Amino acid sequence: YHFIAENKSWSEAQRYCREKYTDLAKVFDMTDMSRLRNSAQNQGEAWIGLNNNTGGNRTWHWSLPGVEYIHNDSSWNLDGRTGKWSSDECGKEKPFFCYDDKLILIKENKTWEEALDYCRESHRGLVSITNLQEQGWVQDKAKNASSPFVWLSLRYSCTLDLWFWINDKLVCYEKWSREGKTEDCGRAVGMQSGGQYEWVSQRDNEKYNFVCFK
């Protein structure tokens, strides 16, 4: 998270975050809340990425890259001193929080090996997930995929009889679907691009979108 000490309206803050980072800040869990407060440096109210439109149901939405909420009239801010959230008029000018997830969704269908090579050549590698927060960040990318799954860098080794992240991260977090863990040669993990975003082992010659570390 990045605290930006410039006073802007919610829409102006959204544009700034999308130009410089990924988007206005989102919060998935209490770990995010703690990190957001730490980045606030004990400042007062600042915009985050939650806003509502003026449709009949006044539904609240997180700001999503590529989605414009033109007809919104109120949004949420966080008080950096107390950690409390409150809504306010979007036109008011306040500091704001941006986030940068350091991830990129590649909307091309490739085999697992092809996806691995692409991420290594063009970015920092195929994504791995080691905690709930990282699961949330990858889900946020996966929801925009054009395939039913997105490749992760988790693969099964017949020789060692275990699942391993290709970048040697420990397998300390898992989100398998109930029937999705098939341990067999030539298997890698695809995350569902909708629903519960669970992990399902796939034949590594299937072709899906994938997520890279930037």
UniProtKB/TrEMBL annotation:
The protein's matches in InterPro entries, at most eight in alphabetical order, are given as:
C-type_lectin-like (IPR001304), C-type_lectin-like/link_sf (IPR016186), CTDL_fold (IPR016187)
Query: Which segments constitute the C-type lectin domain?
Result: 1-99, 98-213
PROSITE patterns recorded? C_TYPE_LECTIN_2
Gene3D superfamilies this protein is in?
A: Mannose-Binding Protein A, subunit A (3.10.100.10)
Top-level taxon:
Eukaryota
Q: What is this protein called?
A: C-type lectin domain-containing protein
Give the source species: Maylandia zebra
